[in-house]
Amino acid sequence: MQANSSVAKVWGAATPGSLSALIFDVDGTLADTEEAHRNAFNAAFVDVGLDWYWTETLYAGLLDVAGGKERLLHYWNILDPDESGGHKVKETINAVHAIKTEHYEAMVCGGKLGMRPGVQRLILEAHATGMPMAIATTTTPANIDALLRSSFGTDWRHLFVAVCDASTVQKKKPAPDVYLAALQALGLPGADCLAFEDSENGLRAARAAGIPTLITPSAYTSGQQFTDAMLVLPHLGDPDQPMLQHVPGADQRWVDLAALRRWHNGTLFEAA
């Protein structure tokens, strides 16, 4: 089944265990951030005098490389492999990434990015019931703060037991390290959690950590393969922005905690 179906079926039963915590990726999952990141990179290239420009098609391919600095180095290596290991290159990449982060924060704080349908509602619902939550992402702390501050306020961190990011571990997705760090902070096995991701790399990382995973593909990842996902949906839905079709296992056309518990318990539902 294609990832961009309106409502996909549950692919298989989750590993036995009660749903005790939610773990969220950030870029592409909480918000469609990648276009903002692409524009911020291009603005930074201009600022430092690089004649680079990342088109949507080029950037979609570069997203296979996790991490902004790693993405920059990868691209540099494509253009000029003989120079990519030099000290000057590292300094330039650090400068570009810092300027890019400033541009991205300005976009987010300027109200140009909002949460994807259902994300804010579900996080607040889980918090109200006392369900622990964590973040597992390869993006920088500044990017996370800018995005979540704009939606949840300056005290957004109280919503999460742990915020595991690019500074937490050395190996980035698809390595499971950031998810393993989140599980350690939660004090739970992977089988008792549910991960939210938008990409194949993110799915591979979560599943390698033993975590059942719900996928909501973004514009940049809709063509990827998610055959190991527990469920693939276009988004989480909201009462004022429901999915086009009935959500399998839910009483309405948006995702709530009750539906998540049913899916996690391993019950199979077909698309409505």
From TrEMBL:
Gene Ontology MF term list: hydrolase activity
* CDD domains linked: HAD_CbbY-like
What is the official name of this protein in its record?
HAD superfamily hydrolase (TIGR01509 family)
Question: Which Pfam families does the record associate with it?
Answer: Hydrolase
| UniProt cross-references to InterPro entries, sorted A to Z | CbbY-like (IPR044999), HAD-like_sf (IPR036412), HAD-SF_hydro_IA (IPR006439), HAD_sf (IPR023214), PGP-like_dom2 (IPR023198)
Q: Which Gene3D superfamilies match?
A: HAD superfamily/HAD-like, Putative phosphatase, domain 2
Q: Phosphoprotein: present as a keyword of the record?
A: no
Does Acyltransferase count among this protein's keywords?
Answer: no
What taxonomic classification does the UniProt entry list for its organism?
Bacteria, Pseudomonadati, Pseudomonadota, Betaproteobacteria, Burkholderiales
Question: Which UniProt keywords are listed?
Answer: Hydrolase
